[in-house]
Amino acid sequence: MGGIGNPAGRGTVRTWARWVFWGLIVCVAVAMIAVSAAEAGDRRTRVVTFKASGAVTASTSQTTGFDVSAYIEGQVLISVTAESDPSTITYTVQTSDDNSTYYDHTSGGTISATGQYRLAVTNFGKYVRVAYTVGGTSMTFSIVGVFKN
């Protein structure tokens, strides 16, 4: 009696071993694809617009707080598109557990020119906002946060 793909019956064990080997390869490949897809689907990001682009004259203010408790790290991105000489922005990421009382978390330094600026943040509380002070005449800028789990 012949084996699969071997009508004369020669090498039946070898033929079955090949089928088993390639079957295992296919199963492992399918499992790896399924795991990769699950991991990619589990990753979540959230983009938060703290402050839409607009001119701000010399003042101190803060953005609205956003619930980012489902995320473990983030970036605060500030894009300065116009600056009236001489003007500056100083900014601090603040955190809160109740969206009422905020505590300074990470200071981003002083910005005095147009351009894009980034500040990485981790270990923040349930809510995050950005406090900023514009010194001098005025600056046009936006503040966006990108958070991921």
Any key phrases for this structure?
alpha+beta, 149 residues, single chain, seven-stranded antiparallel beta sheet, Jelly Rolls, 2 domains, 7 strands
Topology:
Blueprint: H1 12-42, E1 45-62, E2 66-67, E3 73-83, E4 88-96, E5 103-111, E6 115-122, E7 127-148
Antiparallel strand pairs: 1-7, 2-7, 3-6, 3-7, 4-5, 4-7
Q: How much of the sequence is in beta strands?
A: over 45%
**CATH-derived topology of the largest domain:** Jelly Rolls
Main sheet record? 7 strands, antiparallel
User: How helix-rich are the residues, as a percent range?
Assistant: 10-25%
Indicate how many domains the architecture comprises.
2
Number of separate strands: 7
Q: State Rg.
A: 28 Å
Label the CATH architecture of the largest domain.
Sandwich
First CA to last CA: what distance? 59 Å
Mean pLDDT: 84
Structural class: alpha+beta
Unreliable spans are 34-38
User: Rough shape?
Assistant: elongated
Q: Helical region count?
A: 1
What's the SSE pattern?
HEEEEEEE
What is the C-level CATH assignment of the largest domain? Mainly Beta
**Assembly status:** single chain
